[in-house]
Design the sequence.
């Protein structure tokens, strides 16, 4: 039995939704495992020793024979232009994420937001665009912007 094109498209959409949900679950579990490993490391928190720490030595005196470093050159105009373009692209990305959350009318996971951003043709540098997007949204949510962090990688619009 062969499926019609509409049935095949519907099944593909369902499988993509399931894959996105699995990817989110995997990412969350990996995050918790990594956090647990970092917290369980014995060198992460050094126990207080019974011996007192040595007294700090005198601060080093400047060496009169040492020459001061020459002033650094200003960045090239091409670098400034590239930085300005990256900032514009970042603003465009955040504005699109805000529009997506407004259209959805509900909080969304960063992976869901990323799917819709990618569908609009937007890109993010790096090997994990969801993590990059999550970081950008998290930083803006802390700054009192239009975003509000509601959970691990879950964002909504501030009222």
Sequence:
């Amino acid at each position: 039995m062969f499926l019609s094109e509409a049935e095949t498209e519907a099944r593909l959409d369902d499988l993509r939704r399931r894959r996105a949900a699995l990817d989110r679950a995997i990412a969350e579990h990996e995050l918790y495992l990594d956090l647990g490993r970092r917290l369980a490391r014995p060198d992460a928190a050094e126990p207080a020793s019974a011996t007192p720490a040595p007294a700090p030595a005198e601060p080093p005196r400047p060496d009169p024979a040492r020459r001061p470093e020459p002033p650094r050159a200003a960045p090239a105009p091409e670098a400034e232009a590239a930085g300005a373009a990256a900032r514009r692209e970042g603003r465009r990305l955040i504005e699109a994420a805000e529009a997506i959350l407004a259209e959805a009318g509900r909080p969304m996971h960063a992976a869901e937001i990323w799917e819709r951003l990618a569908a609009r043709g937007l890109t993010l540098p790096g090997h994990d665009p969801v993590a990059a997007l999550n970081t950008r949204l998290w930083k803006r949510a802390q700054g009192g912007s239009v975003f509000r962090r509601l959970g691990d990688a879950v964002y909504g619009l501030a009222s």
